[in-house]
Write a structure and sequence with these properties.
- This protein has 160 residues and is an alpha+beta fold.
- The chain has a single domain, classed as YlxR-like (Hypothetical Cytosolic Protein, Chain: A, 2-Layer Sandwich).
- Helix content is 44%, strand content 16%.
- The strands form three sheets. The protein has a three-stranded antiparallel β-sheet with strand order 4-3-5. A two-stranded antiparallel ribbon has the order 1-2.
- Helix 3 runs antiparallel to helix 4.
- The relative contact order is 0.14.
- It binds zinc ion.
- Zinc ion binds next to strand 5.
Length: 160
């Protein structure tokens, strides 16, 4: 299983457990839910706190090796959540079309996925969505780092 480092906490994990983000042409971060978009991407744990860490430490721009448009953290979080929702809907529809799912009025979205790999992907996205949706607030540590921006103090991760 290929592994990648999270741009938030720097921990290595299996690629499939991480979210992949790419930059749009105007330098906005965009979720690559299926991890197949061409070009450079960064990986991050599906977690509100890693999203926050990467946002504060500018790990996204570093990992993508380009300047990014300023984007508030809550907006980025909402974009990731919306993209995960879209990915779920798209996969369900695709599965319905190619016979990996059957109509079931009781199931989410009126479709019950019967193919195990596809069902596992949907479950994984649902779990990732819940973890990304956790509230992010500015902790004292985050505010402290912001205050020192530009002075290039070593971050907690770099000290370890
Ligand atoms: Zn992480």
């Amino acid at each position: 299983m290929p592994t990648r480092s999270c741009v938030g906490c720097r921990r290595r994990r299996e690629k499939s457990e991480l979210l992949r983000l790419v930059a749009t042409s105007v330098g906005r971060l965009s979720l690559d839910a299926t991890q197949r978009a061409p070009g450079r991407g960064v990986y991050i744990c599906a977690s509100a706190s890693c999203l926050q860490r990467a946002h504060v430490s500018r790990g996204f721009a570093r990992g993508l090796r380009r300047k990014l448009a300023d984007q508030p953290l809550d907006q980025l979080q909402q974009r990731v959540l919306a993209a995960l929702d879209q990915a779920v809907i798209a996969l369900r529809q695709q599965a319905r079309r190619d016979g990996r799912a059957v109509d079931d009025p009781e199931a989410d979205g009126g479709v019950r996925v019967v193919e195990p790999k596809c069902a596992a992907q949907l479950e994984s996205w649902a779990a990732q969505r819940a973890a990304v949706a956790e509230p992010v607030g500015e902790t004292d540590a985050v505010r402290g780092k912001r205050g020192r921006r530009g002075k290039r103090a070593p971050s907690e991760q770099e000290k370890k």
